[in-house]
């Protein structure tokens, strides 16, 4: 079968709808990952083993199971006990939770790299625990890990095709739908692949800008 570039370009307008869905899932999933990741990192540093141990186990459990399995669990199993949400919301949450376990380790590495003297200075100034974290530790830890955090938004965007398993029609799903209508899969899938590439490159370029702007800890 001959490959027609004209069909690739004809697929683009329809694929843009799928791109919007993929970006929505990525944005909301990334915000969830950033917030939950920080919460996990702080809880895992708790001095109470009754808190840190379950959180540590949960993080390792999520990291050690495939995202696809988690998607199926949230979308097909939880409704059996009365917990359900629209496919896109479920997909964004699953992405966010999955990547939160990775961002938590990134946050933890940034916190561990804050000089010991900063902790000692906070104690010497008799700062409260909340003030120590919000005014001393996190403002130094987070800029150190911005480059690593930026990489995860690209990885999350590239994982959005897995949302097809729970009926979310992002770009790959739209491409396959076009193929089923036209009986030509090569062209729409190629168009989707090129669009993934372009968007990922733009995200990488944006990540470098953020890294240059915020990735240096100022003394």
Automatic annotation (TrEMBL):
It comes from Amycolatopsis arida. It is found in: Cell membrane. InterPro entries: AA_ABC_transptr_permease_3TM, ArtM/GltK/GlnP/TcyL/YhdX-like, Ectoine_EhuD, MetI-like, MetI-like_sf. One of its GO terms (biological process) is amino acid transport. Belongs to the binding-protein-dependent transport system permease family. The chain crosses the membrane at residues 20-43, 189-210. Its main location: membrane. Keywords: Amino-acid transport, Cell membrane, Membrane, Transmembrane, Transmembrane helix, Transport. Residues 15-207 form the ABC transmembrane type-1 domain. Pfam families: BPD_transp_1 (PF00528). It is a multi-pass membrane protein. This is Polar amino acid transport system permease protein. GO terms for cellular component: ATP-binding cassette (ABC) transporter complex. One of its GO terms (molecular function) is transmembrane transporter activity.
